[in-house]
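User: I've been trying to design a sequence by hand for this structure and keep getting stuck. Would you show me what you'd pick, starting by listing the structure so we're on the same page?

Assistant: Good idea, let's start from the same input. This is the structure you sent:
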């Protein structure tokens, strides 16, 4: 089979520039990879330090639109990708522009990374940031019933964990946006990946490394710490409504479809968007592709409907 013949032709050149796959096991090199460039002309978010959970360190966050205006507005707590072991708290440009348009408060969490900080360190950081938004809702001009969470890749996995923790602790949550989410440590380890997936960007080997670093045990091992692997949580009823989006070539394709199916069966409102011939992270790496543009419109529309426009 010719190289890249299974990929949407409009996404091939972007993958050539990025590289066919990443190796997170070399942490220094992985963490120093340049992030996707942000468009010019966007307001810089404020750097803030918010309280951690009792007995834990403070949490660094980036806050966009911190100064409230008239009325109550929506908020989004964002978790970045990076395989659980890398990444930074940059706010994606589409979320940045939508937040400026609709005056959403956006809080991007610089959560602790594995393997230096294993589960539940990052979950605690993300939950602490969510608590900060709720605890300061009046000061920030936020409607507590219009607070959403979201992320991409490992960040979407963290968001799914946070949605479960918020439900269990009685924290109001309006929506969870899960883009190409890492939901199951067994994919590519004890559980086989769907044929044709995981060839590009994020492979089974990379997935094993990331999950093992987070959990402090080999990926796919039984048992896992409670609440650490969304796909392994038995009770997923009463979770916040969700958007789940993934490409058919993504290693996370089958686990995303399975999780969406389980959510729907549990009575949770869920929108599943599957993009043919798309690899992991296509929406960021190849935003000019028509399929990426359509996908980005769909998740952004879902988020806008959930949060409201004003």
């Amino acid at each position: 089979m010719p190289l890249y013949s299974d990929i949407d032709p409009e996404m091939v050149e972007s993958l050539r520039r990025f590289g066919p796959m990443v190796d997170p096991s070399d942490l220094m090199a992985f963490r120093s990879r340049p992030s996707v460039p942000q468009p010019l002309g966007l307001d810089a978010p404020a750097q803030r330090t918010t309280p951690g959970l009792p007995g834990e360190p403070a949490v660094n966050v980036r806050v966009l639109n911190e100064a409230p205006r008239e009325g109550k507005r929506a908020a989004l707590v964002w978790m970045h990708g990076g395989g659980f072991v890398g990444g930074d708290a940059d706010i994606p440009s589409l979320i940045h522009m939508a937040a400026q348009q609709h005056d959403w408060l956006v809080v991007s969490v610089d959560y602790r990374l594995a393997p230096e900080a294993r589960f539940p360190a990052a979950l605690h950081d993300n939950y602490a940031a969510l608590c900060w938004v709720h605890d300061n809702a009046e000061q920030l001009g936020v409607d507590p019933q219009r607070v959403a969470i979201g992320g991409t890749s490992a960040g979407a996995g963290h968001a799914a964990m946070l949605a479960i923790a918020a439900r269990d602790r009685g924290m109001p949550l309006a929506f969870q946006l899960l883009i190409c989410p890492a939901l199951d440590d067994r994919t590519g380890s004890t559980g086989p990946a769907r044929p044709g997936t995981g060839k590009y960007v994020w492979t089974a080997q990379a997935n094993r490394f990331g999950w093992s670093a987070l959990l402090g045990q080999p990926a796919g091992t039984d048992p896992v710490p409670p609440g650490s692997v969304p796909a392994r949580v038995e009770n997923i009823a009463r979770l916040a409504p969700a958007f789940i989006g993934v490409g058919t070539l993504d290693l996370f394709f089958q686990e995303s479809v399975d999780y969406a199916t389980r959510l729907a069966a549990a009575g949770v409102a869920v929108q599943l968007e599957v993009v043919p011939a798309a690899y992991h992270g296509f929406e960021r790496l190849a935003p000019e592709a028509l399929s990426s543009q359509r996908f980005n419109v769909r998740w952004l529309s879902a988020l806008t409907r959930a949060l409201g426009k004003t």
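That's my pick for every position. To get oriented when you compare it with your attempt: DSSP finds ten helices and eight strands in the chain. The first helix runs from residue 9 to 18.
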